[in-house]
Amino acid sequence: MYRTDMAENAGMLFSWNDERVRSFWMRNTCLPLDMLFIAKDGTVAGILEQVPTMNEAPRKLDCPVAHVLELNAGWARAHGIGPGMKVTIEG
Q1: Residues near 7 by Cβ (< 8 Å), separated by ≥ 6?
Q2: 81 by DSSP, 3-state: which?
């Protein structure tokens, strides 16, 4: 929250041990984001693009995921990322 910029190829990863429907909001978030919802096996379940800033509307997909990766708005489309693709999460 309160970030006004993020490096071009940076992001914020949220991870959990279980899969369930995850809901996010943009309260006090000052930059628009793409949100990648990722299953435990690394499959991109879906993407919310260009999520608007500074609001409390719930942002979610109706499928269970274990990770959500927030990126600068437009990043997913610019890099050809789409649902069904696989990502590797290291660490």
Answers
A1: none
A2: coil
* Residue 39 CA, distance from chain mean position: 12
pLDDT 10s digits, 17-76: 999 999 999 999 999 999 999 999 999 999 999 998 999 999 999 999 999 999 999 999
Tokens representing 77 are: 């489309």
Q: How far apart are CA 16 and CA 50, in angstroms?
A: 24
Topology given in CATH for the domain delimited by 11-78: Jelly Rolls (2.60.120)
Indicate whether this model's pTM tops 0.90: yes
Residues 70 and 1: beta-carbon distance below 8 Å: no
